[in-house]
Specification:
alpha+beta, 2-enoyl-CoA Hydratase, Chain A, domain 1, 4 domains, nine-stranded antiparallel sheet, 38 strands, membrane, transmembrane, Tail specific protease domain-containing protein, Tail-specific_protease
Length: about 750
């Protein structure tokens, strides 16, 4: 039995607080192809069955679907299947990895009508009978409504076992904590990477982790054809075979803020780490970088034939500047979400959403294409656009270019669950495009009632080369928060002959699309389950589209305009890594806010530490929240506040304000109350460099420093922590960590 412990964040993400921005976007906006839908939970969350709710064949009279009745037979022998050579020709090749059974029978479960008033609350504990009913319905939904089920089953995810094991876990309980249910589902589906799949319970859970770009501030240029200009023209083959067919390629550093990597140095590799960036005509420039879903503080490169380390930072294309914050503030004026403008003399169109609720303003965006047809270049900024209706971007490019083709193979899962999720939507104020989906679902219901099946409606893939009437350049600017139907806009843009994608890789939430919301009747858990497939060779779930050129800038659209307007002289100047001091950021579960003087925000994700005794207190020095730890004789409270710090630091300094009351100092291995550094010592054991507190003291500032080299510590194994046990209260405010880089020019491994 799992108990109440939250599962580890290995292949899924728990989203909460400011860190939950992506999930909050998904919660309020359903991103669909061919049409968008704003999800108001009071309007569109269906109640499935409920106690006494009607169920169809394959379910018992109690409303509980029989265990095992939904398990997909391994061979689908009696159904159409992609394993049958006579059937395979009907499944386009890009979809054959996702679809096994074209059609199969299933029980028809009648859903209750839509709830027009506010839906029932999340329930903390439920009877065993109620939990069994919810487990059955959840299994039914993943069996009949999830477009990714067959794909992930082939990759080892056993959906049936997830729910059967959960039945076994709760069989002996009279009342069951709802958190056990959601934790078991999340942990059981940890092998799934689907950025549209979402579970809303005591927390908000998304499945999958995005591959982020981690960039250095070093710029290198390929000079293969101009060896005479090299300061030190030597090329060495690295131990890894990074130059399988590129042994004659030569790169040199052209811009660097690091003292141990200088302009003119030869960059020997790895070549696979070089991400192309915009550059002047006749030049090819790159920045060493990596893609990783984990925090990356540094990377190893070879400079002048010697291996060394260079620091990394997250790609700045998703940073929020004052200008970006104003654009992303939401529909506070009639202009949102379309902001036309100009930069470097070129048209700059910023579109922050394709939500069909704003069809009037987005219609203005579509119409603007008429005035752009004769322009030499335009910049379309889609940063932070999480999707909505793909029809707006399609119509824009049809108007601009005369054509817009979606380079994807598609399929829709048609079943009693997916059809009822639309047909029961009763809102007269729905936009016309959403109303068309409702009408289609209503027309499908009679045949499903007479012959209940799960079947795929396939849209064939047709590869169409770029072309059309627009002869200028289009720079489409994206970042890692561009997803779903906004990623469809990228596909439409590629219909233009001279289109280029710049910024960073997109969200990658397009393969499994059109998520539909379903509320389990007893626990109140809501699951958002995708019902469509959109398969493109270069759109990878969790990685997204890769840009043609990466732009490591807080406003990549302005940088893209400068590049297009100055093709002969353009130079990208990255923001340098601090040469001496660098602020060391907190992890998302530990803190938020600005780098200096932050107020720690814990929310519901307490991470490593006790689940009780940690809260946000209003007793901060300047009115904002601060971190409060409370302990008594039966509790121990601790919190690791910083992520693993960057490798390559020589010294670390912590400055913070602290207040404590009634803190006792007793015997034991460690003080009962402290704040400070925890790291691995030279012998590999855990080492504490902390400051202990006892008694009572009002707000005062503390400063601590740690020399990593003298302590034999690695910043990658170091945390800043607070700890309290036995008694009292501890308050922490305005914690800032700064570090000093070491000079690694002499390091060779």
């Amino acid at each position: 039995m799992m108990g109440n412990k939250l599962p580890k964040r290995e292949t899924f993400s728990k989203c909460c607080g400011k860190a939950g921005l992506a999930s909050l976007i998904i919660l309020f906006i359903v991103l669909i192809s061919g049409g968008g839908l704003y999800l108001n939970r009071e309007q569109v969350v269906p109640i499935l069955g409920g106690s006494g709710g009607a169920v169809g064949s394959g379910a018992s009279s109690t409303g509980i679907i029989e265990p095992g009745s939904l398990k997909l037979p391994p061979q689908c022998n009696t159904w159409q299947t992609s394993n049958d050579p006579n059937i395979r020709s009907k499944i386009p090749e890009p979809l054959s990895d996702y679809i096994r059974c074209l059609s199969r029978p299933v029980a028809f479960v009648e859903f209750n009508s839509w709830v027009k008033e506010k839906s029932g609350p999340y329930v903390e504990q439920v009877s065993r009978a109620g939990v069994m009913e919810d487990i059955g319905f959840a299994e039914y939904l993943f069996e009949t409504a999830y477009s990714g089920r067959e794909y992930w089953e082939k990759r080892g995810v056993d959906f049936h076992s997830v729910f059967q094991n959960l039945r076994d876990d709760v069989a002996g309980m009279d009342r069951v904590s709802t958190r056990i249910i959601e934790n078991a589902i999340v942990a059981g589906l940890s092998g799934v990477t689907d950025m549209h799949l979402l579970l809303l319970g005591s927390s908000q859970w998304s499945f999958g982790r995005h591959l982020d770009g981690w960039f250095s501030s070093v710029v290198v240029e390929e000079v293969t054809k101009n060896l005479k200009n090299l300061k030190n023209p030597k090329l060495s083959r690295t131990e890894e075979s990074d130059f399988p067919s590129e042994t004659e390629r030569v790169f040199r550093v052209v811009r660097s803020p690091l003292s141990w990597v200088r302009a003119g140095d030869v960059f020997n590799g790895p070549v696979k780490s070089l991400f192309p960036i915009p550059s002047r005509n006749g030049s090819k420039e790159y920045i060493p970088a990596v893609l990783s879903s984990d925090y990356r503080s540094h990377m190893e490169v070879s400079i002048n034939g010697r291996k060394t380390l260079i620091p990394l930072h997250p790609c700045r294309a998703s940073e929020t500047t004052e200008n970006v914050n104003a654009l992303n503030a939401g529909p506070t004026s009639g202009d949102w979400p379309f902001f036309p403008g100009e930069s470097s003399g070129l048209p700059l169109l910023r579109v922050r959403s394709f939500d069909s609720r704003f069809h009037g303003r987005l219609g203005t965006f579509v119409k603007s294409a008429e005035s752009l047809r004769q322009k030499s270049a335009i910049v379309l900024d889609l940063c932070d656009n999480s999707g909505g209706s793909s029809s707006f971007s399609r119509d824009f490019f049809i108007s601009l270019n005369g054509r817009a083709h979606w380079q994807m193979a598609g399929a829709e899962l048609v079943s009693p669950a997916t059809v009822q999720s639309w047909s029961l939507l009763r809102d007269n104020a729905l936009p016309p495009i959403i109303r068309s989906f409702v009408n289609l679902a209503v027309s499908r219901l009679p045949s499903l009632r007479s012959e209940s099946v799960v079947k795929w409606d396939i849209s064939p893939f047709e590869k169409v080369p770029p072309g059309g009437t627009f002869k200028g350049k289009v720079a489409v600017v994206v970042n890692r928060r561009v997803g779903s139907s906004a990623e469809a806009a990228v596909s439409f843009a590629r219909s233009v002959e001279n289109a280029v994608l710049v910024g960073e890789n997109t969200w990658g939430m397009g393969t499994f699309g059109e998520p539909r919301p379903y509320r389990l009747p007893n626990t109140g858990i809501v699951v958002m389950i995708p019902s469509k497939l959109f398969v493109a060779s270069d759109l990878v779930e969790g990685r997204g589209y890769m840009p043609d050129y990466w732009i490591d800038s807080p406003d990549p659209a302005v940088e893209a305009a400068r590049w297009l307007a100055n093709p002969e002289t353009y130079l990208f100047m990255p923001s340098p890594e601090p040469s001496e001091k660098v602020f060391l950021d907190f992890d998302t579960a530990g803190a938020g806010g600005e780098p200096m003087g932050v107020s720690l925000e814990i929310g519901s994700a307490l991470g490593q530490g006790a689940m009780s005794g940690i809260e946000i207190s209003t007793q901060a020095r300047e009115g904002s929240g601060c971190l409060k730890l409370s302990a008594n004789s039966s509790t121990m409270v601790y919190r690791l506040l910083s992520r693993h710090l960057p490798w390559g630091l020589e010294k670390v300094k912590a400055t913070f304000w602290v207040k404590y009351d009634n803190v006792r100092r007793e015997g034991g291995q460690y003080p009962n109350c402290y704040a400070g550094f925890i790291h691995k010592g030279a012998d590999g054991g855990k080492k504490f460099n902390v400051k202990a507190f006892s008694g009572t003291n009002d707000w005062h500032q503390e400063t601590m420093e740690l020399d990593l080299r003298s302590e034999g510590a690695s910043a990658g194994d170091l945390h800043f922590a607070v700890f309290l046990s036995m008694s009292g209260e501890l308050y922490l405010d305005s914690l800032a960590l700064t570090g000093q880089w070491a000079d690694w020019s002499g390091q060779q491994q």
